[in-house]
Amino acid sequence: MSIIQVDDVWKRFRIPHQKRSTILEHVASLLAFEDKSYEEFWALKNIKFSLAHGDSLGIIGPNGSGKSTLLKLMARVMKPNKGTIKITGSIAPILELGVGFHGDLSVKENAEVYGIILGISRSQMKRLVDPIIQFASLEKFRDTRLKHLSSGMQIRLAFSIAIQTAADIFLVDEALAVGDMEFQQKCLEKFRELKKDKKSIVLVSHDLNLIENYCEKCLYLLNGETVVFGTTRDAIRHYLDDMKSGAQKTP
Amino acid sequence: MLFYLVSASSDQALNATFSHYLDIVLVLAKKDFKLRYRNSVLGFIWALLNPLGYMLILTVIFSILLHSSVPNYAAWILIALLIWRFFQVATSQSLPSIISNPSLVTKVYMPRTLIVLSSNFANLIGSLLEFLVLIPLLFLFGVQPDIHLLFLPVILLMEFALIFSLSLFLASLNVKYRDFDQIWEIVLQLGFFVSPIVYDENLIPSNYRFLYSLNPITRLIQATRQLFFEHQLPTGFDFLVVLSITAVLFLGGLAVFSLLQVRFAEEL
């Protein structure tokens, strides 16, 4: 049974030559007979793959190849222009840590807001709040305002919350590159647990070792197109080959 | 198990949990509410001093200097000010609610109407508290409310529905047109004077009075004054005007919001 099925997905962005964001600017451009030109570009072209229950997916490719866009489509933050994405199960998007965080609220209050946004119920949250703060090693700062914490600490908190959600699929965008060594080890331990529980992780990262260690399947994107979808070894080998030959071509 | 399908035309979360959405609204409203009052020591007291200050100024101008014929002017105007203030503050705070919470739109999925709803909901609670604290003051002014006062939350709920319907327009249009707040500010200024806040509805020339009475804010203010001074429930006409205008605004607002929200994540 597949938990993620992506079928012929296309996503287009429009980049206007002149961004008009106020009514005044719209009126002014009408009066000046400016044309409404914009450039189109396809961030994703004809993406197709499916992921089986319990498998994890790595997404690799150079900057601007459409990795994050694909993740956002899966998280339902944006809609594709064409094609469908079928997802069976609940999703915890860890696209950016600390969604809805506010510096003037305490650690505990922020944990509550973020956790509930990610799908933890209010009653569950009451029980989970202490384990979350403990996982982030922030017991001392429970009632401190978030703005007094270092950015590393804030990210630890955010990650601890996201990982506690009972989602079936975790969408992770470069989130692990933060936090100190000790915390990274903790996170990787947690990833192993999730995988043991047959949860799926979709990981966008430039850390190929990480992807090799945690993902059965891998998607290699280049300029919005699928180069390889298959086993992680295959995809990574292709990616490395491409990079080497690309490096040789450009003097 | 949750199942959903994302495509260009549809976006359906089958079995999307209503209780999760309710939780989101409550927790975001709680956050709004805390942030609004925490940063100043006086917190909630400021929220009370604002209508009281206006009451004082307007009473001096209209009752003492201009000799308004309305008896118990201070209490009379305070009630209207509280109703107006709910409308004014809630709409102008919901207007930037989407653009000031970009991460809730671009990093996580939830129905975006919830962001607007939670902003309005925080204001509803604030407004209820303002009434609760200021009702004893009305006693001091010689107003003697009776059991009919229990109907006040119904009036505030109707106003809440009206505000939410309008906020759907405001919050979504503000994403596309970032100067929309300037326009709304002018509309609010106008609204203050086309509603019977500082003057009585009877001052309007009789041939315009019917048109004038179709303003839902006018109806809400008159209904609340009736409740306090004459111990009468809102009339059928009050309900008819407020509810029908709210229904039209709600459908229109929802249509505009759904149309514009497709591009929210790209515009923020």
Count the beta strands of chain A: 9
Question: Poorly predicted ranges of chain B (pLDDT <50, ≥5 residues)?
Answer: 9-15
Q: Compute the number of helices of chain A.
A: 8
Termini separation of chain A comes to 47 Å
Number of domains of chain B: 1
- Largest Cβ-defined interface: A-B, 45 and 40 residues
Characterize the overall form of chain A.
globular
Alpha-carbon Rg of chain B, integer: 20 Å
Q: Write down the CATH class of the largest domain in chain A.
A: Alpha Beta
- Series of H and E elements of chain B: EEHHHHHHHHHHH
Helix content of chain B: over 70%
| Order of strands across the main sheet of chain A | 5-6-7-3-8-9
The CATH topology label of the largest domain in chain A is Rossmann fold
Radius of gyration of chain A: 21 Å
Proportion in helices of chain A? 25-40%
SSE layout:
The complex is a heterodimer of chains A (251) and B (268).
Chain A: E1 2-16, H1 23-31, E2 38-52, E3 57-60, H2 67-74, E4 82-88, E5 91-94, H3 107-117, H4 122-135, H5 151-164, E6 169-173, H6 181-196, E7 200-204, H7 208-214, E8 217-222, E9 225-231, H8 232-249
Helix pairs in contact in A: 3-4, 3-5, 4-5
Chain B: E1 3-7, E2 11-14, H1 18-38, H2 44-65, H3 73-94, H4 102-106, H5 113-140, H6 152-176, H7 180-193, H8 206-213, H9 216-230, H10 236-261, H11 264-267
Helix pairs in contact in B: 1-5, 2-3, 3-5, 3-6, 3-9, 5-6, 6-9, 6-10, 9-10
Task: Explain this structure.
The complex is a heterodimer of chains A (251) and B (268). Chain A has helices at 23-31, 67-74, 107-117, 122-135, 151-164, 181-196, 208-214, 232-249; strands at residues 2-16, 38-52, 57-60, 82-88, 91-94, 169-173, 200-204, 217-222, 225-231. Chain A has 251 residues and is an alpha/beta fold. Chain A folds into two domains: 1-89 and 168-178 and 190-251, 3-Layer(aba) Sandwich (Rossmann fold), CATH 3.40.50; 100-167, Helicase, Ruva Protein, domain 3 (Orthogonal Bundle). In chain A, the strands form two sheets. Chain A has a six-stranded mixed sheet, sandwiched between helices. A three-stranded antiparallel sheet of chain A has the order 2-1-4, covered by helices on one side. In chain A, β8 and β9 form a beta hairpin. The model of chain A has no long low-confidence stretch (mean pLDDT 85). Chain B is mainly alpha-helical and 268 residues long. Helices cover 71% and strands 3% of the residues of chain B. The radius of gyration of chain B is 20 Å and the shape is globular. Mean pLDDT of chain B is 87; it is low at 9-15. The chains are: A alpha/beta (251), B mainly alpha (268). Chain A binds chain B through residues 13, 21-24, 26, 72-91, 93, 95-96, 98-100, 102, 104-105, 109, 112-113, 116-119, 121-122, 168, and chain B through 1-8, 11, 13, 19-20, 23-24, 26-28, 31, 34-35, 38-39, 101, 103-110, 176-180, 183, 262, 265-266.
